[in-house]
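FW: tagging you since you asked about this chain on Friday. Here's the raw sequence from the shared folder, copied in full. Didn't touch anything.
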Amino acid sequence: MFIDVDCSQIKKFGQNAFGDYFVSKRSDNQERLIAVLSDGLGSGIKANILSCMTSTMLMRFIEEDIPIQKAAQTIMDSLPVCQIRKISYATFSAIDCRSDGTTWIVEEGNPSFLLMRHGEEVPLEYEEYTSPKFPERHLRLYQFKAEVGDRIIFCSDGVTQAGIGTQAYPLGFKREGLLHFVKECLVKNSDISSTDLSSQVIQKALSVELQEHAGDDISCAVLYFRNPRKALIFTGPPYNKMKDREYCMSFDCFAGKKAICGGTTANLVSRELRREIVNIPHPNSGDLPPIAAMEGIDLVTEGILTLTRATEYLEREELFHQDAAGQLVDFLLSSDIIEFMVGAMLNQAHYDPSLPIEIEVRRTIIKKMKKLLENKYFKQAIIHYM
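HL: got it, structure written out here
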């Protein structure tokens, strides 16, 4: 199974920094995913430092194969107490899961997570541990086997306490409100992505706040266990022209979505597969060449300019453009495993002095895009050079 993961957050109204901190990492072989959400005491810079420290330390312990229970207990017993409020400097939720569904979760102080299966919550048993140093701190440990289609939703108390004191929600949105809303979202779209579901949860929490001003940091993280959505991008002609047809046939037989980035590459595929390229005028193409169409191909764009712009959008999280680069970003982010077929033949057009000086060579752009997709958007990306 592929584990689709994302976290959406809103800062407390009037603050410049998130008091909650989320971190996630996949193993090199993509068989393991670790994620931690911590809620720092208070808000702003101080809370950010506390939650960041807690999340990164716990992540490091688990990553080094310290049993998750021991790692969490070490953190729980180490966090100091605020002398004024007499509560912990940070709370946390951590998950360690494998691609076969084997999952461990620990929670200390955060709202209890939801495990959704077939649109309903699955009740789970847990073991509870009390800190010998701080008797008021209790750690819950869960172990279970996730199935295809399962979702795990965990959040900071900015979600469950949203709207507290208002007429509609005198006791806050509460975990029951979160569960009801998640069910509604799954009824409307049973295949909703982790990105969209987490975003809808925090927007709902914000909507119940007085004047829609977040009274606390609001964070929601979602994991979605599903069969992977695969995509393949063909860009640049192969170094050995004798293998043009071989690579084109391999591209055509790929089981997943397919895109071509580059006019020369599109002409090559058109020639070898005997398929026509149809230009599609687009009113929102901006200063980029518009997209084209080809039978059996989901997206056809220009090459270096579009790849460079798409990388900029990914880097800046500018994801709502309708030009060719924006459509390429949508293509990428709707997939889980993205493969690149990158031709090694040099194109002299890339060295035209009339082109913008910031344009990078294709390989460099693809490497940068791969890093962004993996580190910022939690995708799996693979590059094949030809």
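FW: Confidence is low (pLDDT under 50) at residues 354-359.
HL: agreed, and The first strand starts at residue 2 and ends at 10.
FW: great, closing this out.
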